[in-house]
């Protein structure tokens, strides 16, 4: 169990990934994303999650350079977008991402969505980049169980991570169990359901007991469920608040109460219908 913001989870290839990080979806490139990433790093975050689709890799890269933190202490994730998929395109997209980030190596590269007929070729290119030592770990995002099964049928390297929408209204228990069984680490995007859970009475009630917000209760639930989580915020006080979850522990009963809020409701697209 994580006890500190910089504690790590060991992936299936023995790479250690921080269990808590910062997501930068929809954060504007340039000074905005730069300030956000620098603030997060100052306050102890070591994992930053971006994507070519977010169009802010340049700013993220500049923040990394200016942070003063040794590169090997940071864990950087980016993703290959849907129109960049396929074998040759993926290799090209990777090099463009690395140029924008200004990095020598990447910690984690993900397939952003399972584009039908392409994601296996995309994976082949990623396996090669991994073997060439350019990426420390490769994984997927928004993959249902059937996508994972299809990918693992014939692949040489099993995904280390599956990053999916995950929160108390979408607990993905069957997918989580499948990933655990196959030693694929689940990671949560939109852990706070884009703000759609902050007024949930159960979460507020549990929060009152520990003097925590509903958001902090959710993020604690993630961690106790052994799900890596990357809440996004542009506000410094919220970045600090999101990470202030290591001084309390939810009881088994409270964990169950939160899990029971599940209604299989998404705030984003369903991976079977994302086009």
Automatic annotation (TrEMBL):
InterPro entries: AKR (IPR020471), AKR5G (IPR044500), Aldo/ket_reductase_CS (IPR018170), NAD(P)_OxRdtase_dom_sf (IPR036812), NADP_OxRdtase_dom (IPR023210)
Ranges where the NADP-dependent oxidoreductase domain occurs: 30-262
GO molecular function, one term: oxidoreductase activity, acting on the CH-OH group of donors, NAD or NADP as acceptor
UniProt-annotated binding residues for substrate: 112
Annotated site residue numbers, Lowers pKa of active site Tyr: 79
Assigned keywords, A-Z: NADP, Oxidoreductase
Catalytic residues (UniProt): 54 (proton donor)
Domain of life (superkingdom): Bacteria
Family, similarity comment: Belongs to the aldo/keto reductase family.
Protein name: Glyoxal reductase
Gene that this sequence comes from: yvgN
